[in-house]
Structure formats: structure tokens, C-alpha cells
Request: fold
Amino acid sequence: MLSGNTRRKTQMILVMKDGNVIIGNTETIKSKVKYYNSIKQDLTTNSVIDMEVGAFTRPLTSAEKKAYGLS
Reply:
């Protein structure tokens, strides 16, 4: 699902069926999303995977889960 909760018009937020959230730039997300499966293998909880500049992860907060309909 594509979320409309973006901060910039060049930002894209993807809410994945497995409960993770990918944040990316509309111009680079296509080339970076191919790394999603290898990144999610290392996760122990539902997380935000930020691929805007580089790639880093952090666990989703309760507020973020609610905002993205994942609670």
C-alpha cells in the first residue's frame, strides 16, 4: 500500500504486507527496493526501512503502527 503521509513531494512511503514500512525518494526507490528482501531478513520486529539516503532501519513506534494501519 502507498501511504499519503509523506513530508515532501519527492518522498514515497510503502506499507508492506509483512508489516514493515519503506521510506524512499521517488527518483531512487526503484533501484533501492531490490535490497528489501535481504534487509528484512535481519529484522526481528516490524521496522521502518529508510532508503532515502543510503539505507537504515529502526523499529516502528506504536504511533507509527497506528498511523500506517498496522496496529
